[in-house]
């Protein structure tokens, strides 16, 4: 072989191996060591210095603090009769995150058991339909809830860990449901509020929501007292919701306290029945009644019509939930005349026998006029009260110094919240005395130009029940009466009490308020109603406030009927008969002995009956 050929062979031999730079090896190796060091350091940090992080992550997935519900306190009437009680019920729940809804036609094997805690529980569409039917859910309602998802903090779609399927079902229904042994369906004991008296007590007791929190009435105002304090139990649960173990001491719940009201359930039922009947038969928009213990100021009954059933979770008309006796304001009309007469008597401006000239029943005050429906001419103060003369009462009101009159109204409780402890009670409207015009000073004397609640009117008549004191009104049963405020003298109280009795006797406006075997007294009111800023020609508020028995008053009863039919617009026609029925039954329930013969009733013919309208 020639030298040239040898050189050509050398050119086509395999090339020399590339030389790997040593520094590159160290760079790659160093990088891997750094990554390994980082992982080891992170692991050491989490395990040693920040070991709570992993524990918290585990707890977030499997540790649960269960709330142990406290049994809500009972509400009773003054005699211990239950008005609100809590009964145990069952609520059904599931964990959508742990469930897997099978496709149509697929079923879970009869002998299915989870292989591990992370395995989803399969549920067929047939089982879902069976649950919906048993729990009376709408078709596909449960399927939609199980399939629903939400975004977590990382923006990922996840299903909920907990879902209430149906709350507050009877233990019997829950037992039959759990007997189906459908995996992933659980029951939990809760308490539901039950109101034995239903609509009769609705406006006093109120009701709770599905979570047991007070929403109206004393369920709301005494929430803290009634609710008690829930306990807790911290447990470890597996993915399927089963409790594996307790991990802390169980804190037992503190039961709610019992609330005893001043209400007498028997009188309450009677008052509600009579009021409801009168509202329905008179075609009225609504009505209210308050019954007070004349000696202590305790509320024995308070009812409104229309009412509602607090046991029903169905939608309730908001107007039916309104407590008219405490929140609605109206112009009291002639029921105010007893207060005006007491003010003038106590100030020494008149005596019961003082004669006041009312002329032909018309009095001019500037450009305005005050009129009587039945002119009485020259009449004594007693006669003016009995015949309900606007002119005579207006003249007595104008005898008073304006500031003194304002202070008297305030002492009686007008223009101020009654402080009964009930939510939403109204203060009424009593304008500052410096702004009074003469016509306003006169009309307030017979119940116009000011507004009150029915509770305020009932409270004001305490003036005449005893020695001229007014006691705080309360819904809580008292051991002893709270100290009262002396507003008028005992002599003034006795004088007005006699006049109130005359109103119910022949010649008065409230003969239908009479009660067989008992002497009673009171005052009617028939006031024109303000509609769109003007007094209506047809709409009236008919009312009556009275005492019984008049010889030693035990009860004060105030009634208000809102917009009865025009033919029954008078307080003496629609409100006074309610007083008669409620007082007759209540006095017998309380064991009050009669103070009059059973022949004491006299009802005049319709032609002779005195009716007033202010």
Written account of the structure:
- The chain is elongated.
- The chain contains 21 helices and 23 strands.
- It is of the alpha+beta class and 614 residues long.
- The relative contact order is 0.10.
Summary?
Pathway: Cell wall biogenesis; peptidoglycan biosynthesis. The chain is α+β, with helices and mostly antiparallel strands and 614 residues long.
Shape: elongated
Question: Would you count the extended β strands for me?
Answer: 23
Look at the helices and sheets and give the structural class: alpha+beta
User: In whole angstroms, how far apart are the ends?
Assistant: 148 Å
Mean pLDDT: 87
Fraction of residues in H or I helices? 25-40%
Cα-based radius of gyration, to the nearest Å = 39 Å
Helical stretch tally: 21
Low-confidence stretches: none
Strand content: 15-25%
EC number: 3.4.16.4
Domain Penicillin-binding protein transpeptidase: 287-582
Protein name: Peptidoglycan D,D-transpeptidase FtsI
Active site: 334
